[in-house]
């Protein structure tokens, strides 16, 4: 089983986890680590590395991050120099649900699932045009 770690600024990753588990039920292969305002980036990197190492004992790890270039991303890339795991930036609920409901065999397969455009859940929604009828009395 692929271990999924969520990392983000603030509580975004905790919200992703909570939302996904509300829909799919508890996921033992899912964990989250928030980067808090005022937190030392080096401490966050240490905590992230510990979480990933712990998860690697159970299987391959896929790290989903809120956005590229932020502190969680930068600390993940530093950690990636020491450990072998996959990283995807731009995590969202549909992506996470696809991963949790598909049971990928390994991290590479998980990456394919996560990056499948159908799983992004991004689309423009518009109301259908309704023609108004005049009612004659």
TrEMBL record:
Annotated localization: Cytoplasm
GO CC entries: cytoplasm; membrane
Natural source organism: Lactobacillus equicursoris 66c
Name used for this protein in its record: PTS system, mannose-specific IIA component
Keywords carried by this UniProt record: Cytoplasm, Kinase, Phosphotransferase system, Sugar transport, Transferase, Transport
Major localization listed first in the record, in broad terms: cytoplasm
An individual GO BP term: phosphoenolpyruvate-dependent sugar phosphotransferase system
Residue intervals of the PTS EIIA type-4 domain: 1-137
Membrane-crossing segments per the record: none
């Amino acid at each position: 089983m692929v271990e999924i770690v969520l990392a983000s600024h603030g509580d975004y990753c905790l919200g992703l986890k909570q939302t996904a588990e509300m829909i799919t039920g508890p996921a033992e292969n899912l964990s989250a680590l928030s980067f808090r305002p005022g937190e030392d980036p080096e401490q966050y990197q240490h905590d992230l590395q510990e979480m990933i190492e712990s998860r690697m004992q159970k299987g391959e790890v896929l790290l989903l991050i809120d956005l590229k270039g932020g502190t969680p991303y930068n600390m993940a890339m530093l950690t990636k120099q020491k450990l072998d795991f996959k990283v995807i930036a731009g995590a969202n609920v549909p992506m996470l649900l696809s991963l949790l409901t598909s049971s990928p065999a390994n991290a590479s397969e998980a990456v394919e699932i996560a990056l499948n455009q159908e799983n992004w859940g991004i689309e423009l929604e518009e109301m259908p045009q309704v023609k108004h009828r005049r009612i004659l009395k």
